[in-house]
Amino acid sequence: MDHSFYCSSCDEETPHQVISSSSTMVVQCSRCGAVHREIPEAEPEQVRLKTIISSGLDSRVCSSEFTPGEAVALGDHIVVECGEEASGAEVTGIESGQKRVKKALVSEVTTLWTRAIDTVLVRASVHDGYLTKALARDYEGDDEFTIGKGVEFEGVRFSITHMKLRNGAMITREGRSARAYEIRRIYGTRF
Q1: Strand 144-146 relative to strand 177-179: parallel, antiparallel, unpaired?
Q2: pLDDT tens digits for range 108-120
Q3: pLDDT recorded at residue 39
């Protein structure tokens, strides 16, 4: 694996191969073949935060990793680790001491509240004459839904008429789209 270091022979930063590594590294310039020593940069120690991740009706206590000095804000997308399993999540709450905040440095955060966005439960209300039926189905978080397009939930085919987003917005214009993790509820009429 090549690393980039300054080569005094080439008088510029060039790719190098590591020959040996301990407290100092012996490296060889891939361009001119010059061999010299380098002091490896210390990796910044990571900060682990207690992170609650919700997926549908289930919630688990997990953790997420950040670099010291980094800030986290509502709406940020992060990776949450639960043992050997990792999930993409959106930050929905930040606890700093005894209060909830919109943004904080990771050193000030007590607990992060998140929701999984890899796979999300999308809810729909489908109108069929005089009856409205509530439906739900799991989708990948990045799946897109478009006003005016047809979809199928639980064997019911319908056309999307409007969507309520998690940020409170309502989209109604034909052709407008939203990703599954952004949607609070889809509304439609049965074919």
Answers
A1: antiparallel
A2: 999 999 999 998 8
A3: 83
pLDDT of 135 over the 70 cut: yes
Q: Would you call 92 helix, strand, or coil by DSSP?
A: strand
Is 64 in a helix, a strand, or coil?
A: strand
Q: Which residue did the predictor score with more confidence, 42 or 171? A: 171
HSE-CB for 167 with a 13 A CA cutoff: 11
Phi, psi of 145 (to 5 degrees): -120, 140
Percentage of the chain surpassing pLDDT 70?
A: 98
Residues 47, 106 contacting (CB under 8 angstroms) = yes
Residues in CB range of 116: below 8 A, 6 or more apart: 53, 54, 55, 80, 87, 88, 89, 141
What is the CB neighbour count within 10 angstroms for residue 13? 10
Domain range annotation of the chain: 2-38, 47-116, 119-190
β-sheet bridge partners, residue 34: none
Residue type present at position 141: G
- Cα dihedral 72, 74, 78, 84, rounded to 10, equals 100
